[in-house]
Specification:
The protein is mostly helical. The protein is 50% helix and 11% strand. The protein is built from 6 helices and 3 strands, in the order ααβααββαα. The protein has a 3-stranded antiparallel β-sheet. A hairpin with a 5-residue loop joins β2 (69-74) and β3. The longest helix has 18 residues, at 93-110. The protein starts with 12 loop residues before the first helix and ends in a 15-residue tail after the last helix. 17% of the residues are buried. The model has no long low-confidence stretch (mean pLDDT 82).
């Protein structure tokens, strides 16, 4: 497994939080799992658009390492692996909802085009 050469220099809780759900794909994966529950890798992949397998695998590993997503493997043939939000991961949902509500208020003021909603996020107004 890849190991960073330098430790993250996180100096406040806000930086920690933004690192957890502020990355491009993290919040989308969290929203998909919150909306649809426990999913297999291929199901997550089919719900996401414009994400490569390498990025999805890497992002899932990061979310697992941060105890946001849990990975459960079953001793079956063929092997089956499922992903779901942890209890800690579920506590991120209200934060993402708040960000979505805030963004929907002000995004239209700053953009020339109508805001399009995330296809898998029912949290936005």
């Amino acid at each position: 497994m890849y190991q960073k050469k330098l430790k993250d220099d996180i100096r406040c809780p806000l930086e920690y939080g933004l690192g957890i759900f502020g990355e491009k794909w993290n919040s989308r994966i969290i929203c998909v799992l919150a909306e649809m529950g426990t999913l297999r890798y291929s199901e997550i992949r089919s719900e996401m658009s414009n994400i490569t397998d390498a990025v999805l695998a890497s992002t899932l590993k990061t979310l697992i390492a941060n105890d946001i997503v849990q990975r459960k493997s079953y001793d079956e043939i063929p092997p089956r692996v499922e992903y779901a939000l942890t209890e800690k991961g579920e506590t991120v949902i209200p934060i993402l909802q708040s960000i979505c509500h805030w963004s929907s208020k002000f995004y239209k003021q700053d953009a020339n085009e109508e805001m399009t909603h995330c296809q898998k996020c029912d949290y936005c107004p």
